[in-house]
Write a structure and sequence with these properties.
The protein is mainly α. It is 77% helix and 0% strand. It is globular, with a radius of gyration of 18 Å.
């Protein structure tokens, strides 16, 4: 126990003990389970599963809204400025272009479409989302892995459903997952000594709102470009250091 505590106290230790590692393992586990269903899971079953996961995501987002030391003015200002920055950069479009380029590259010279389709689809699903960023930042800053653990279970179910129809390429998406989430966790752990409690609290609320937006997209109720709001998460950390 003493070894675990001392390891978690270092930035690299937080990565090794983070939810990113659990996410990596559960994506592989879900993919292996999906390979057992080679005939594919019926579309209506997959839809029901994904809707159920979306409802769980809403619950995760709502429970993260009630943080102490928050300031609604900071949250509104962060969303306003963050939305402008996000739209100017257009992260959502850039990520989609990256996915298209990745798929084209994997299919070049007679590549296996089945593998590339599964890899690209799953990578975008598992890596591009508020839960990945919010969960990794929380893991690195405070050692709270609850969001990443919840995401890991959802990804496991999703990986099972997608692998059954798209093949083993889905399993390969586990590597981008651990690279992205592990990298963000490490970065957050390094800068955590310079952050204020108020900044972290406001960032958590904004992250929770983005998680709810992601869930609404999953249910098909909205088409919010969640990625374009990600800059808003960083602004409270900056604002609260100068107020």
């Amino acid at each position: 126990m003493e070894f675990i505590n001392s390891t978690a106290a270092t930035p690299l230790g937080r990565v090794l003990l983070s939810g990113a590692v659990v996410n990596f393992v559960l994506v592989i586990l879900g993919s292996l389970l999906g390979l057992l269903f080679k005939k594919g899971i019926p579309e209506k079953v997959r839809t029901t599963l994904m809707n159920g996961m979306a409802l769980c995501v809403i619950y995760i987002g709502v429970t993260g809204l009630f943080e102490e030391n928050t300031n609604i003015i900071i949250i509104i200002l962060s969303f306003a400025v963050g939305a402008i920055i996000g739209e100017l950069i257009d992260l959502d479009r850039r990520i989609n272009i990256l996915g298209e380029k990745l798929e084209t590259k994997l299919n070049k010279n007679g590549g296996n479409t089945k593998i590339s389709d599964g890899f690209v689809t799953a990578t975008l699903l598992f890596c591009v989302g508020a839960m990945s960023i919010v969960g990794s930042v929380s893991s690195g800053i405070s050692g709270d892995n609850s969001t990443l653990y919840s995401k890991s279970v959802i990804d496991c179910v999703s990986a099972m459903a997608f692998t059954s129809s798209l093949g083993i390429g889905v399993m390969l998406s586990a590597f981008p997952v651990i690279i992205l989430e592990g990298g963000v966790t490490l970065l957050a752990a390094v800068i955590s000594p310079f952050l204020t409690d108020a900044g972290i609290a406001n960032m958590s609320v904004i992250g929770s709102l983005l998680i709810i937006a992601l869930a609404l997209n999953m249910l098909g109720l909205t088409k919010i470009k969640v990625m374009n709001y990600l800059p808003a998460m960083l602004l409270p950390l900056i604002i609260c250091n100068f107020i």
